Amino acid sequence: MDLGLTDKHVLVTGASKGIGLATARAFAAEGARLTLVARSADTLADAKQQLGETGCTVGTIAADLSTDEGRDALFARCPEVDILVNNAGAIKPGRLADLDMADWHEGWSLKVFGYIHLCKLYSAAMTGRGYGTIVNIIGMGGRAVRSNYICGAAGNAALIGFTNALGAETPASNVRVFGINPSPTLTDRMTTMFRKRATEELGDADRWQELIDPKAFPFGRPKHPDEVAALAAMLASDKVQYLSGTVIDMDGGGQWTA
């Protein structure tokens, strides 16, 4: 199926690795023009080199999206996009007693307020133009809440409600806003964790896959970033225009298992 994404300008935050880089790759495969955003210019250069092999047009912007100033500067440099994918942000795990207020401010400044601010900036531009799509990559931590991820539970839950509310308003201007809640995904972050455990428990980091318990995951494995990316690209297509105000749980049904 041709998704009709050829020459669409797609801006992806947190695009230098993990789900963000996979998402950029999925849009590149559909012929989109890309702007990759992350904090590190060096990691962005590596990502651009990888995506350049697809033949697509790729630009990069190094920006600190945890500040109002950084988000305003990004919008000033790149105001006209067809699709915005909000993906930047990681919130520290821990129970309420484990976290100080600095942890809450740090986690929410990038992911929660970062998403909200970029949605405010870009949805206004899209509304004025009468066209656009925003995809918020949020997380199952806001749906299947756990006390040992309380900061993420609260932050992601806030973004789910925000996406529902904004996505109910924007179709009047031919703008769509929707979200995806990935469950734990086999990103570099997860691989690094398993490699560390394999070194400690097995004496060999390269044996990390032996530590993945198939019983702990739907389909017997962790989800791959490319699967989240494929869903984002497919749903951002105009062929799925009637989708807005929805946040899709991509957890393989894991939230319903005992």
Task: Note the topology.
Blueprint (H helix, E strand, L loop, with lengths): L8 E5 L4 H12 L3 E6 L2 H12 L5 E5 L5 H10 L5 E4 L14 H10 L1 H18 L2 E6 L12 H20 L5 E8 L5 H15 L22 H12 L10 E4 L8
Parallel strand pairs: 1-2, 1-4, 2-3, 4-5, 5-6, 6-7
What distinguishing features does this structure have?
258 residues, alpha/beta, Rossmann fold, 7 strands, 2 domains, 7-stranded parallel sheet
Structure overview:
The chain has 258 residues and is an alpha/beta fold. The protein has eight helices and seven strands; from the N terminus they run βαβαβαβααβαβααβ. The protein has a seven-stranded parallel β-sheet with strand order 3-2-1-4-5-6-7, with helices on both faces. Helix 1 (18-29) crosses helix 8 (225-236). The longest helix has 20 residues, at 150-169. The N and C termini lie far apart (37 Å).
